Amino acid sequence: MKRLFAGLLASAISFTALADIKVGDMAPDFSLPGSDGKTYTLSDYRDVRAVVVAWFPKAFTSGCTIECKSLAANGDKIREFDVEYFMASVDDISDNVAFADDTDADFPILSDVDKQVAEAYDVLYPVMNVAKRHTIYIDKSGRISKIDTDVNPSTSAEDMVSNLAALGVANR
Q: Which of 45, 96, 102, 144 sits at a 20 to 30 Å CA gap from 117?
């Protein structure tokens, strides 16, 4: 029994280590459907432009609606940088399409229904089965340059602009 427990503990520790991403790591690749009907693959942007993925817990909830509206209202400021930006959740694509329409999102909202990408980025709340509100900044080379775990929904766009400038992301 002790040996079984030790084996299970070792497996849990190694799984956690795999999901523990940090600044400087290569960002795990993904290919996810967007609310605009297209599929987005992270590796398509490598050596082309930086990428920001703003993970959120649940479409149509208060904080997520505020965050999405902030990004939609200030998209012109974000697009001054050479960056592709997305919001992402583990919601069904039909929910994210409706959410994008409802919030006038002028950027794609990605759906990770099988939760594998959220797990790879260590943003999945295992008990609640939703994504954490974290914003992941990925530089042009495909490396994680910042993990923002303290996202304020009402200032998310302004904070994204500040972070892009601080990270030295080029203007378009």
A: 102
